[in-house]
């Protein structure tokens, strides 16, 4: 019998359903907040800056910022949902019930990360729908767009899972999303093309890993990218492998799980 057949799918479904239930109980706040944020971004960036920059690489500025808006919310929501999802059982002490149950680490990760990724993807699609109220959407490669959406959500949900295990207080849950990920996203070409930068700052921007995510996602919309799609996929896959390695290490050593 294959490993997939031997997995405790009812346990995975129970964790997933519980986490999604928590999301739906606060659906008004969870859904309304990104809609309002997207509207404000369009008012500020689309109207104020768009009146001065009519187009970027032949794409109307209001439409150009849509992938960046989605990616900004996707990254922060993936990290926040996953980190809080695993941190709260640690805080409440119910993590020991999960660890003592006949559930493998893989099944625990699938439940928590799957739920976090589902939430962030849903919010990303809501932002996409909200954007359609302001600009005529254009998606040249819809299959690739969905693929990048899934890959990014899963990768950063894993990253959030690691943060949730590392954090020893609620304030640390917001430390990385607010002070690291959000600035990197703003400086990663969310609202501009890095090709517009002077050579020195263009080279500096390539150090930012979020540049590759936004570039690949924008290519799925407009068929244009600041960096090679192959490099973008490689960087995302590398970060995914690093996150998987960290999660494996944590469960093998019990770091922050048993103390």
Automatic annotation (TrEMBL):
Location within or outside the cell: Cell inner membrane; Membrane
One GO cellular component term: ATP-binding cassette (ABC) transporter complex
Topology in the lipid bilayer: Multi-pass membrane protein
UniProt keyword rRNA processing, yes or no: no
Alphabetical keyword list: Cell membrane, Membrane, Transmembrane, Transmembrane helix, Transport
Presence of the UniProt keyword DNA damage in the record: no
UniProt main location, coarse: membrane
Highest taxon listed in the record's lineage: Bacteria
Transmembrane segments: 31-49, 61-88, 108-135, 142-167, 173-193, 200-221, 227-251
GO molecular function (one): ABC-type transporter activity
Domain ABC transmembrane type-2, chain residue ranges per copy: 25-254
UniProt record similarity statement: Belongs to the ABC-2 integral membrane protein family.
Alphabetized PANTHER family for the sequence: INNER MEMBRANE TRANSPORT PERMEASE YADH-RELATED (PTHR43332), TRANSPORT PERMEASE PROTEIN (PTHR43332:SF1)
Identification of the protein by name: Transport permease protein
Species, as recorded: Methylobacterium pseudosasicola
